[in-house]
Amino acid sequence: MRRGQKRVFFPLLAIALCLCIANVDAGTTLQPPVKLKWHHYRRYTTCKYAEEFVRHQVELFWKEDRSITAKLLRLLYSDCFVTGCDASILLDGPDSEKTAPQNRGLGGFVAIDKIKEVLEIRCPGVVSCADILNLATRDAVHLAGGPAYPVFTGRRDGVISKAAMVDLPSPSISGGEALTYFKSRGLDVLDLGTLLGAHSMGRTHCRYILDRLYNFNNTGKPDPSMNKAFADQMRKQCPQRTKKGQSDPLVFLNPESSSKYTFTESFYKRVLSYQSVLGVDQQLLFSNDTLQITEEFAGGFEYLRRSFALSMSRMGNINVLTGNAGQIRQNCRYINNGTPQ
Question: What region holds the Plant heme peroxidase family profile domain (predicted)?
């Protein structure tokens, strides 16, 4: 693999991709500056078993509701890609990030609240909500069949959360637009191709795919890149909206995973067969780099596991607060001295 730039080296994150994606220019470790630490809580705080406490609670939630993995993945993405991985998405308020239209339907808050409650009993004022969200997502991904990747910790929590700051893109954007957005967060094309694999599980509302099914690019016709039989199947689940107040059903992003909520390479196989639900996922076929990534992941689950581990760690490193910045919230929904700013 060619390196696009020199990066700080961490043996735990230098995950060998076996030169399988030989022509894709991509990073192989965390982006600088790296402010987080491996086993921060065990080595540098009084809460030595913080990660074990988080893992236990996630296991309890997952046994009751396997959709927790998809919920936490989306919640972490919605946090990190806005102001950085500072848990600002968790803050309540009349104009907080969670009220933005792009964040409608977010879940996983109850799980984070419970984990925080347990940690505040065990070791008050030590573990940040930002770290809880990253650790809980990792553990949920592993339970769903994904990698148990290392999470560097030591994040602190932000104190500002504004809906106006949320610029998460539409799931109908082009591949080029998606890559530009990822690059603006310090990520690259391999991160894009890899992190879209989170759509191997979970659900979306029909409103996000109606354009593909009925009026692609204002043509009055379906997206020609969709497999015809699959498009017919999706139109049965997502009828055209012809009147006010019409329901907006939920559909599975990956019908093969469906209610099992398993992390597999089947998402990439569906992309190759033109059976993606979201338009941005189908866009993986339309550039040489993302096509190569898709083919590699569809052909070998181990390649996907390794790359997903690295890209999740890189996403978790976006604009983190450390040192004296931010705070350690006592309640993930509120800053320590009041409501969100």
Answer: 35-336
Q: Report d(CA 252, CA 178) in Å as an integer.
A: 22
Distance CA 50, CA 120 (A): 10
Tens of pLDDT, residues 76-115: 999 999 999 999 999 999 999 999 999 999 999 999 999 9
Q: Most distant CA pair in the chain: distance in Å?
A: 61
Both structure tokens of 2? 């060619």
Q: Which residues contact 56 (CB under 8 A, 6 or more apart)?
A: none
Catalytic-labelled residue, pool 74, 156, 329, 333: 74
What are the backbone angles phi and psi of residue 250, rounded to the nearest 5°? -95, 140
Instruction: Kindly report, residue by residue over 22-52, the tens digit of the pLDDT.
Output: 456 666 777 777 889 999 999 999 999 999 9
Whether the Cβ atoms of residue 186 and residue 115 lie closer than 8 Å to each other: no
Active site residue 241: no
